[in-house]
Amino acid sequence: MDNFLKQSWAGLRILLALTVLLGVLYPLAVWGVSRLPGLHANAEAVDTTLVAVTREGDRYFVPRPSAATLPASGGSNKGELNSDYTKVIDERRTAVAQREGVAESQVPQDAVTASASGLDPNISPEYAALQVPRVARASGLSVEKVRELVAASTGGTFTTTVNVTALNRAIDAATR
Amino acid sequence: MSPLVAGLVQVGVLVAALAAAYRPLGDHMARVFEAKSHSKLEKAVYRFARIDPDGEQKWSTYAYGVLGFSFVGIVFLYVIQRLQSLLPFDFGRGNVPSGMAFNTAISFVTNTNWQSYVPEAVMGHAVQMIGLTVQNFVSAAVGLAVAVALIRGFVRHQTDRLGNFWVDLVRGTFRILLPLSFVFAIVLIALGVTMSLKSGVDVDGQAIVNAPVASQEAIKELGTNGGGVLNANSAHPFENPNEWTNLLEIFLLLVIPVALTRTFGQLVKQNKQGYVLLGVMATIWTAMLAVIWGAEASGLRPWEGKELRFGIAGSAIFANATTGTSTGAVNSLHDSYTGLGGGGALLNMLFGEMTPGGVGTGIYSILVMAIIAMFLAGLMVGRTPEYLGKKLGRKEVTAAAVSILAMPTVLLIGAGITAILPSTQGALNNPGSHGLSEILYAYASASNNNGSAFGGITVTSDWFQSSLGLCMLFGRFIPIVAVLALAGSLAAQKKVPVTAGTLPTTGPLFASLLTGAIVLVAALTFVPALALGPIAEALQ
What we know:
Chain B: It holds the Pfam family KdpA. The complex is a heterodimer. By secondary structure, chain A is mainly alpha-helical. Helix content of chain A is about 50%, strand content about 5%. Chain A has six helices and three strands; from the N terminus they run H-H-H-E-H-H-E-E-H. A three-stranded antiparallel β-sheet of chain A has the order 1-3-2. In chain B, a hairpin with a 2-residue loop joins strand 1 and strand 2 (about 205-210).
């Protein structure tokens, strides 16, 4: 017991020293470097397109469903054999098919499933293509123009995706 | 690129990066723990703490150091959470409730990083930095220290000294974890990870919580900690914005446990001894990746709980790496995985976190398993087993057995009681066998100090907070004390010369024995529980 207490005192002193170095100086040093031009915008998420935001109105592309209750990010955590949740997915599929005026079989998976973060800014090129006619109609832009904007917001090295946040801002800019 | 090819390319990039880092990092770590001199900063810390850095310790004093340091770490972390409202950058999130603070303090000190709290609503930047980030470093450094002490047990002979815990702790932090974290934190920011002292940012009219993410993200992966700065962890776009940060984070969480096999080879002066352990780890890891990736690619709704930018492969590789190391960060929700995919993640933990395991914990766990394997081989041929020139007698095998059995014992007791408690039903997020998997996963994660979750389960009740807290505590410190006792008794021995009767531990025979031991111990212990959970679900 004596040895345990002796070691604990030494441990407390070490912990305090390390708290100053690792808990204060280290993060502040990283923060300091992140003030450099070129890093600052990333660090502060200036004009970020990393997260999806639902925009009201048919003239915007709709991101994936979100199970997050902001400010907390997160997903549904529902298993694939959960029949209650299967109903939720079926309802989403019906709603998307109605909104876009297509058959339910044409609705892609990412349009009806909730992402892990609830903030996934991306949709599949298939889901984007599905939304183009409605967005064109509601925004007054031509279908060709909307397709052009979609292409400009499409990217990815291993998985090709469309960034909805960037895309909707491009719609704003084109209709202003 | 087809998804299959894209996935294979990602695995290829990852393996190439790990291969490139293997020797330089492994050799560097070996030199760090063998060095004789102290840097100026280290000397200043030793002076402040009134520690003689050149005095070596017996195994028991070394163990008291680990326990004492972890004890004050838990108390300190508990206190600052309870007093959060007095600290700056708390954004009115208030003091953390007692059960949650207790669980979180144990969780971060034991390198588990199980999170029963929602960071965006509960943790301010001050606790994240001076509490959680600090433990991210030092809990990993404790794992390194214990691993090095065990290796010294094999290397040294006829001595009762295992080194100095404080020196190993400080060196592991200053010479390995801190420089790597600093560099990779900056790289992560350059690739898009955020680093802000503000409470959040407005995105097209929606407030999104921001935090000093990058500094914590780097050590969260490097230290195989895994506690998310934000609730969605590495699925959150601020923590893991794109495919390249995703690959980098997977690399970071694997690199130290993998390179430690090289460090081990260097310290025992026979690199092949390390390569064979790496071979066993890599074999199991690759097999489990095939299971998880294959299961997820053929799931009914594969995108539920996954981020589009990572793809199925990028999610499955992360899931396999985070559960095969004791990291527990997630970039997709394991609760929404298929029966087989989620079961694979669970099985990775049930192997006892040694494929390749956590920082330090992985290498000492697989060395303990190697002792068990050699003991079994010895029984078969009727010889006293030996490993690395040390006889494995009653003391050594007992210590190894205690170390191996601690995790299944606390896991099955905890999960068993929880499964029959009436209040558990209301805590589950999914019905049927998947619900049982949620319980099993929680206790497997806590007892193995992993920290990932089938996150739908609600674990904020006093029962869950305290029982999972105790599982983390016992799952961490019983093996550590047993491993240090083992190291002590190994170091006290004479070195036995290699004879014609010595089973070589660098070849395929030993590799098969060790792989068999890892798989069999897990299978014998857990098949009944797995049959009712993930296996039942996979067969539906």
